[in-house]
Design a protein that fits this description.
Number of strands of chain B: 11
Strand content of chain A: under 5%
Oligomer: heterodimer
Distance between the termini of chain B: 41 Å
Largest sheet of chain A: none
Shape of chain A: flat
CATH superfamily of chain A: MetI-like
Order of helices and strands of chain B: EEEHEEEHEHHHEHEHEEHH
Number of strands of chain A: 0
Order of helices and strands of chain A: HHHHHHHH
Radius of gyration of chain A: 20 Å
Number of helices of chain A: 8
Number of helices of chain B: 9
CATH architecture of chain A: Orthogonal Bundle
Distance between the termini of chain A: 51 Å
Helix content of chain B: 25-40%
């Protein structure tokens, strides 16, 4: 079996992109979601434009645009860094929309109760609103995370040797279909882990309604 | 004499609707005031204006001798800086119609959160005081429960204890029993009555005429953004002078 070692190597690239995107885009998504409904209108408008732009174009186009765009303006960016940048920008937009709707779904009475008890805006958000938002947005966030597992294959276009690209070159080289099946199993295992993880987190949050 | 709270000539509109058309109220220390009136009369809005849950368009508000809002030269209400307002608002507690407990916090955490965050109370002290207050509202055995595990009446009693945990000088109730099933209103009204017996300063917006008669020092009847009539419960509820008060009371009481 000469197939597994290169595929495992490709898989680690996929995992790197996955985790780094999540670690950066999740907190950015929270901030962007709050900014999206800011009372400071220019900020809210900018975020609305940002979300429209990043959700309104294919991620594949964004990948190419950032990589070749950077080159065009004379900034040499490593391919993986360009891919990560595109993913973070794209996922922040989607996550921002999820957090925005989550924040807006919290009853106005929660703000008023915090307000009359003397909590300031920061305390209200961090202690009262966001903890409830996190519980509510878990299902849509789970969807996005599963999408991220599969979207990671798109960086293939920048000739980065992630899982799918490794599989494809093996198919071409060996004339067998099996590497695609192996790749599919890898993706299925990853999404299964994500799914179980979210099931567990949702259970952990089920102590209140 | 210094009033606990003075609100003079309060005006408030939402869009094109004038909700308060010049309402004034002076509350003495230890006084228990009930505000009654048909829905849409502006009574809840007026209560919410007192602690700036709603901002007023025009008028004067003073809490314990300190001005919170007053008219500028153009007759528009101007509020003091946020910092002073925050200090003044802390003198007032508020109990909402829908309880508004924090669902992700246990009962005891609902009570200790604000004292710890806002008054920098030590956790053990805040918790001991919280348990004392739960005892008072008859819920010490529910301290570790979450709001969803409690009945509406129990939740509202927790909300009252949560307001008390901040040691407010004035307690405001915004229709505290309106969201409750009839069989649960009694337990909440009993807690409020006990507070009245302690001579706490309280303003209660309510639909419970019998309760208003029993606990209030003064009953205010509001209609269409104005105070129509006020006085002792015997006077306003027993012998109303205004036609509008009479027709309101007969419509509410005939429902029984």
């Amino acid at each position: 079996m000469t197939l597994l070692p290169p595929m495992l190597k490709g898989w680690t690239i996929t995992l790197q992109l996955f985790f780094m995107t999540l670690v950066i885009a999740l907190p950015l998504g929270v901030l962007a979601g709050i900014a999206r409904i800011s009372r400071f209108k220019p900020l809210a408008w900018f975020m609305e434009f940002y979300v429209w732009l990043l959700r309104g174009t294919p991620l594949l186009l964004q990948l190419l645009f950032i990589y070749f765009g950077m080159m065009a303006v004379g900034l040499r960016m490593e391919r993986f860094s360009a891919a990560l940048l595109a993913f973070v920008l794209n996922y922040t937009a989607y996550l921002a929309e999820i957090f925005r709707s989550g924040i807006q779904s919290i009853d106005q009475g929660q703000y008023e109760a915090a307000d009359v008890l003397g909590l300031n805006y920061r305390q209200t958000m961090s202690k009262i609103i966001l903890p409830q938002v996190f519980k509510r947005v878990l299902p849509p966030i789970g969807n996005e995370v599963i999408n991220l597992v599969k979207d990671s294959a798109l960086i293939y276009i920048l000739a980065i040797s992630e899982l799918l690209r490794v599989a494809e070159s093996a198919v071409m080289r060996d004339g067998t279909f099996i590497p695609f099946i192996v790749a599919a199993v890898f993706y299925l295992v990853m999404t299964a882990v994500v799914q179980q993880f979210f099931k567990w987190v949702e259970f952990r949050f089920s102590y209140y309604r | 004499m210094m009033y606990m709270l003075q609100a003079l000539d309060i005006h408030k509109h939402f869009n094109h609707l004038e909700v308060l058309k010049g309402v004034s109220l002076q509350v003495a220390k230890g006084e228990v005031i009930s505000i009654i009136g048909p829905s849409g009369s502006g009574k809840s809005t007026f209560l919410r204006c007192l602690n700036r849950l709603e901002t007023i368009d025009r008028g004067f508000i003073e809490i314990e001798g300190e001005v919170m809002a007053e008219n500028d030269a153009h007759g528009r209400a101007r509020y003091r800086d946020e910092k002073d307002i925050a200090r003044l608002r802390r003198k007032m507690g508020m109990v909402f119609q829908n309880f508004n407990l924090f669902p992700h916090k246990s009962v005891i955490q609902n009570l200790t959160l604000a004292p710890a965050l806002v008054q920098q109370a030590e956790q053990p002290a805040a918790e001991a005081y919280a348990r004392e207050l739960l005892e008072k509202v008859g819920l010490s055995h529910k301290a570790e429960r979450y709001p969803f595990e409690l009945s509406g009446g129990q939740q509202q009693r927790v909300a009252i204890a949560r307001a008390l945990a901040m040691n407010p000088d004035i307690l405001c109730f915004d229709e505290p029993t309106s969201a409750l099933d009839p069989e649960l209103t009694g337990e909440v009204l009993r807690v409020i009555r006990d507070l009245a017996l302690e001579h706490r300063t309280m303003i209660v917006v309510t639909h419970e005429i019998g309760f208003a008669r029993e606990v209030s020092d003064r009953v205010i009847f509001m209609d269409d953004g104005l105070i129509v009539e006020q006085g002792s419960p015997e006077a306003v509820l027993g012998n109303p002078q205004q036609e509008r008060t009479r027709s309101f009371l007969s419509s509410v009481l005939s429902a029984w």
